[in-house]
Design goal:
CATH topology of the largest domain in chain A: Rossmann fold
Radius of gyration of chain A: 25 Å
Largest interface: A-B, 45 and 45 residues
Number of strands of chain A: 11
Low-confidence stretches of chain A: 347-355
Shape of chain A: elongated
Oligomer: homodimer
Number of domains of chain A: 3
Largest sheet of chain A: 6 strands, mixed
Mean pLDDT of chain A: 92
CATH superfamily of the largest domain in chain A: Response regulator
Helix content of chain A: 40-55%
Order of helices and strands of chain A: HHHHEHEHEHEEHEHEHEHEHEHE
Number of helices of chain A: 13
Strand order of the largest sheet of chain A: 7-6-8-9-10-11
CATH architecture of the largest domain in chain A: 3-Layer(aba) Sandwich
Chain lengths: 355, 355
Amino acid sequence: MRPTVHDIAERAGVSLATVDRVLNDRPGVRGVTRAKVEGAIAELGYVRDVAAANLAKSRVYPLVFILPEGDNPFMRGLEDEVRRAGAHSMVERTQLSVVTVPAFDGRALAREIDGAIERAVAGIAAVAVDAPEVLAAIGRAREAGIPFVTLVSDLANSGRDHFIGVDNIAAGRTAGSLMGRFLGERPGPVAVLAGSMRVRDHGERLEGFLAAMSAMPVSRAVLPVLEGQDDPELSFGLIAKCLADVPDLAGIYSLGAGNRGLVKALAATGAARSLCVIAHEVTDETRAALEGGLVDAVLNQDAGHEVRSAIRVLRAKADGLPVIAAQERIRLEIFIKDNLPSEPGADDTPGAAGN
Amino acid sequence: MRPTVHDIAERAGVSLATVDRVLNDRPGVRGVTRAKVEGAIAELGYVRDVAAANLAKSRVYPLVFILPEGDNPFMRGLEDEVRRAGAHSMVERTQLSVVTVPAFDGRALAREIDGAIERAVAGIAAVAVDAPEVLAAIGRAREAGIPFVTLVSDLANSGRDHFIGVDNIAAGRTAGSLMGRFLGERPGPVAVLAGSMRVRDHGERLEGFLAAMSAMPVSRAVLPVLEGQDDPELSFGLIAKCLADVPDLAGIYSLGAGNRGLVKALAATGAARSLCVIAHEVTDETRAALEGGLVDAVLNQDAGHEVRSAIRVLRAKADGLPVIAAQERIRLEIFIKDNLPSEPGADDTPGAAGN
DNA sequence: ATTTTTTTGATTTACGTACATCAAAAACTC
DNA sequence: GAGTTTTTGATGTACGTAAATCAAAAAAAT
């Protein structure tokens, strides 16, 4: 059976009060006594019963998720997942809140991080922005002893506890390999639709894509990047023009969130029947396009898994417990039509409204 | 804040003892009193604090995993995952045990299920076998109020609480689609390596594969199934013979666990340079083959996720709590060389032994 | 109305831990 | 050795729930 604080007291020859002082780093214990207690803890392999401690303390873990605003479907899906998890999180003594900031606004993000620090939350998860003020804010959170997780978009050298997301270079490389395999020896250039090359994630995906394409047996041109700012109408226009201007176009890689415009352009021109199209993230649009044959493959990161992982990691850090690395590793999923899981809520009664 | 039993007592105008009797279905409560208490429970939205209850009861959840014996790498990996999870499961009041039975032995499996029922375990997870005595044993477990999860291999109409695994027809279809896409217009038949067609899972994968291949624009022969009994040497022989007998072979789909023999035959003959090879489950052999270019894609189900899911589902069922469907859905993963996650333990110091 | 049976309430103990209080013991200083 | 300071121990209360006991109250039966 598991050792308790009573066992420690007996093994070390001290009282419960002394054990409590050592376990919780309270003052009033001589070094020699502390050593005895710590020795007993180690010998017994004592692990705190966190559930019992939380009960005694009536502890609640307030966690905050800071997400970018806008109509990026993936981010909205991420927000939905947080809200869904939050609906029954009090059962696990967790209280989730969502704060949104303008996309790519480092200053606003830093401000919200500092706000969360002020409120003494138990942990922070944020989609990072490459900006010095964000770097500094993360540093302040860590100094205040608040666990910090970057979500989807990492920030190097930030001291964050954990990154939850996929490797974007590998993502691009995967897209390139698949594109090359699917196209085989069929000739013609490929186009790339990005949001903005100023975003590091997009740059990394392109880098990986180009590397993989250049390693393919068949040499193939990659056209200059189309920057659609993740805007549906702008993306639509760029793709439609490209389809018109490049009659021998062989494929399109959409590495950002402009998929609504892409899918619309493909459907409008009927071009997808002869193109290989690879996009990122399963959303309503890309799911429909995959099922309807407009898109050949979607590379996905599971927002639900990411949110659950963030919660688990922040909780583990707050409790000083180990993180199970294998469980928290986010896989880059490849979906074709045949392995696409059924839509969430597909089990619901047809008349049910939303989910 | 969360309502407690005290709030129920006050709301219903009864004592704590009565609330306890109602909550725990103990005798000695009139119907009219019970209705009052249940009304208060509903109005308050009371949800039991399972952690507090477990503390009061010193509860432990003994769970048993019944797995097939043998050197099937996937099953051994599954067993490793259970043992790994069991190493620190007491922290969560869970006690995992593994029982192995001869592969495909329905009688032995039924006997172990009954043994677990006798020991009054909190839940059972088993790789199912299609046999009437197994069906009956699962029925007995359910009658005894013991939650039952089928793992990897399901059993229809068994009354099990949950299936944790992938859809094998979809798996076969995915393999067929990928094979067709990767081969493009390149001519030549494809071969299928199975364990045994007597195993329903293998039959389903073949079914899906054939359906997808026949839907491809290019018509392509599928050779009669090679049944290697998941034996490395038998599989080696069958593949080597096939490679010698069919010089225009275009691809191989390995739907079972004979991959060690397959990979060895490919390496020995140098045939893989001109073949498209798709296999199932990431194991040491398939990982190396994928990285070395002998295999083009591996379709995988994550054993670690499956074990964690089984534990979560069994715990939730034992507690009478809801199962989060999205979290417990096992995805059919497609791995090519570029999105293959680094090997578990790859973060360890190079000198570290095993893991 | 009386007797018998059933229901209800009050109370205690328990789980493992957190945290506070204050007297007693030990250690330190002069 | 006396006085002062620090450390330690004993104890109580708390968290939310489980479970047992027995007296008192309520309901049912005669």
